[in-house]
Design brief:
The protein has about 120 residues and is mostly beta strands. Helices cover about 0% and strands about 45% of the residues. The protein contains no helices and ten strands. The protein has a six-stranded mixed β-sheet with strand order 2-10-9-4-5-6, with no helix packed on it. Strands 1-3-8-7 form a four-stranded antiparallel β-sheet, with no helix packed on it. Strand 4 and strand 5 form a beta hairpin. It is globular and about 40 Å long.
């Protein structure tokens, strides 16, 4: 059974930075595309960034140039470096398997990690 555990979220001021991490268990991520997703209050979950098995990254327009996705296959961990955070980045951040066009693969999500950006 595949599990995801996200961490690193907290409350920050606009303009600050955060690093999020996600650890996968139950499936080796080495040969899988993976990604970050977020859900803002009252909105549907959206794709933030994905990274392929050859480390090709894709980003949502709203975060491009501010966020950097990376993967550590040896640790089965996915990371997200978020810089110059904005209040509209507030939400719960999740990770999952799946590429940009495929979308999230597994219907069961981890607990997510809350990011709150104060103006």
């Amino acid at each position: 059974q595949v599990h995801m555990m996200e961490s690193g979220g907290t409350a920050v001021q606009a303009g600050e930075s955060l690093n999020l991490s996600c650890t996968f268990t139950g499936l080796d991520m080495t040969l899988e595309p993976v990604g970050w997703y977020r859900q803002a209050p009252g909105k549907a979950r959206e794709t933030v960034a994905t990274i392929s098995i050859i480390h090709w990254a894709s980003y949502a327009g709203a975060v491009k140039g501010r966020f950097t996705i990376s993967r550590d296959n040896g640790a089965n961990t996915l990371n997200l470096r978020m810089e110059n955070l904005r209040p509209e980045d507030t939400g719960v951040y999740y990770c999952n398997f799946g590429g940009w066009y495929e979308g999230p693969r597994f219907p069961t999500w981890g607990p997510g990690t809350q990011v709150s950006v104060l103006p």
